[in-house]
Amino acid sequence: MTFRVMLRMEIHPGREAEFEQAWLDGADVINRQPANLGQWLSRSAEETGVYWIVSDWTDEPGFRTYELSDEHLVHRSRLHPYRAAGTMTTMTLLHSLDGAAARVAA
Prior knowledge:
The protein is of the alpha+beta class. It contains 4 helices and 4 strands. The longest helix is centred in the N-terminal third of the chain and has 16 residues, at 16-31.
């Protein structure tokens, strides 16, 4: 089952564009991880300066291996200057259902 990690990050005002670029510049660090299935960066439509980072992993041990790696520490340190606050939530994906628009696009 897919293991999902969701980060909520509050970015210092005026640094949003820099944060987005730093995230993009470092995205390949995560994409190269053997257990990584993909990742997404979203900006909140309701809260200014709030971003959501979602990444999917083959399993929790695969994610934890990355989380404890030197690569993770370097990647996190590059994003840290932009971050005012943040939280992390982990979960196991139980079901995934495509909506009508996704079925048409396929």
